[in-house]
Design a protein that fits this description.
single chain, 416 residues, mainly alpha, Growth Hormone, Chain: A, 85% helix
């Protein structure tokens, strides 16, 4: 039985590893491919990413409700894997012809397809594995660290592959999808594995109704959680969008700065994996809401520090702090969702409260910060960004209730 339990842990870890290998390869090298291979202008390349974001906004509410109704059934995850399988053929044989027919049309179709796998599909992957690990009595953070390891691996091998053959990146995604599909097919998760969880299992097996879903929107903590996600997850991504260029600007040779930054980013990813091991224990001690607040404080310090302390070694330190922030955020998100909301709706809350809110925030603040960088410079822009972070984190913290507020009876009443 212990051997079987260990095997299942590696199964979960492998699923995270090979999914986020695809994620890291695409997001790291798609911009270079669009520019150097597809020869798209910056505006049309930007349209690809806009199409990915808009498609995700449409998919998230649908994916969330469907996955919650499916529970531990694999059908929606399987659909995401099927989309991943065809990334290699799509990019090699379809994407360029579509762009040649009409650049805007091809960009929209390409972005929408990639969103099925990535921006939209990631919510399915995260929600399903979190629910499955919870049913199997594993800590989410201990399994999620494999995703960080995948990011580090992709950064290491992806550059070599892209230089030799730009299309090899996308075929590597297809190979990863094959392995991911095998791992998903062999996975067996049953709610009845552990007697102590019988009450939770019974709750999971009760059908999800429209009233259950509407109760989520009546819960003030949901709206506070959305604000918190904009303050942390959105601002994390917005800050990282231009930080590599900011970092490289402090070097006489920009290419040297890019190389140093890539090495720092690789170190950060592997440090993140190490902190992911400790994060579940730490969040259990301080509470998920406090974990989110702490992640927001770390991000605030990173952004403000990058504005005022600009020696290269200090900028590297601010980047490495992300290795602490990311585990705090990811583990706290999952623990807060399952501690505050009806566990049957964990996918819906995750996809709407986290992914949807994050995408909306990125759409707005990417544009706002772009204007600020152009008008007042990076350093003053980072001061403004730190203020935005503080406002959203404080507002979210004031509206959210801690998970200790919600007793078991109160959650049952809310779900009724």
């Amino acid at each position: 039985m212990n051997n079987l339990k260990q095997l299942k842990f590696w199964n979960f870890g492998g699923m995270y590893y090979f999914y986020f290998m695809v994620w890291a390869l695409i997001f790291a090298f798609l911009p270079f491919w669009l520019n150097n291979v597809a020869e798209l202008s910056t505006s049309v390349a930007g349209l690809v990413f806009s199409a990915m974001a808009v498609t995700a906004l449409i998919l998230e509410p649908i994916y969330g409700v469907v996955q919650d109704k499916l529970g531990l059934k694999k059908y929606l995850f399987g659909f995401v894997v099927l989309c991943l399988l065809f990334i290699g053929p799509f990019v090699q044989y379809a994407f360029i012809p579509l762009l040649e027919i009409n650049a805007i049309f091809g960009a929209i179709i390409g972005g929408a397809y990639l969103s099925l796998c990535l921006n939209g599909g990631v919510g399915v992957v995260e929600a399903y594995i979190e629910r499955s690990t919870r049913a199997s009595n594993y800590e989410y953070g201990h399994v999620r660290l494999f995703g960080s390891l995948a990011g580090g691996t992709a950064a290491f091998v992806g550059g070599i592959m892209f230089v030799r053959n730009p299309y090899s990146i996308f075929w590597a995604c297809t190979v990863s999808a094959v392995i991911l599909g095998v791992l998903l097919w062999t996975l067996r998760v049953k709610n009845t594995e552990n007697e102590p969880n019988a009450s939770a299992e019974k709750e999971e097996e009760t059908p999800v109704t429209k009233e259950n879903i509407m109760n989520v929107f009546k819960n003030r903590s949901f709206w506070g959680f959305c604000l918190m996600m904009i303050g942390i997850a959105t601002m994390f991504d917005v800050f990282d969008q231009q930080f590599p260029n900011y970092f490289a600007s402090f070097f006489d040779d920009a290419s040297r700065g890019e190389l140093v930054f890539s090495r720092i980013a690789s170190v950060q990813v592997f440090m993140e994996a190490g902190f992911m091991i400790l994060a579940p224990w730490f969040i259990n001690k301080i509470g998920a809401k406090n974990g989110l607040i702490l992640a927001g404080i770390v991000l605030f310090i990173r952004v403000l520090g990058s504005a005022f302390f600009t020696e290269i070694w200090m900028l590297a330190f601010w980047r490495l702090l992300a290795a602490v922030e990311m585990p705090l955020m990811l583990v706290s998100i999952m623990k807060y969702i399952t501690g505050v909301f009806d566990v049957r709706l964990s996918a819906t809350v995750y996809m709407l409260g986290f992914n949807f809110a994050k995408q909306v925030g990125i759409t707005v603040f990417s544009y706002v910060m772009g204007l600020l960088y152009a008008s007042i410079g990076f350093q003053n822009g980072y001061v403004a960004l730190s203020v935005f972070i503080l406002i959203f984190v404080i507002a979210g913290a004031l509206i959210m209730r801690s998970e200790s507020y919600y007793t078991k009876n109160e959650r049952d009443i809310a779900a009724a």
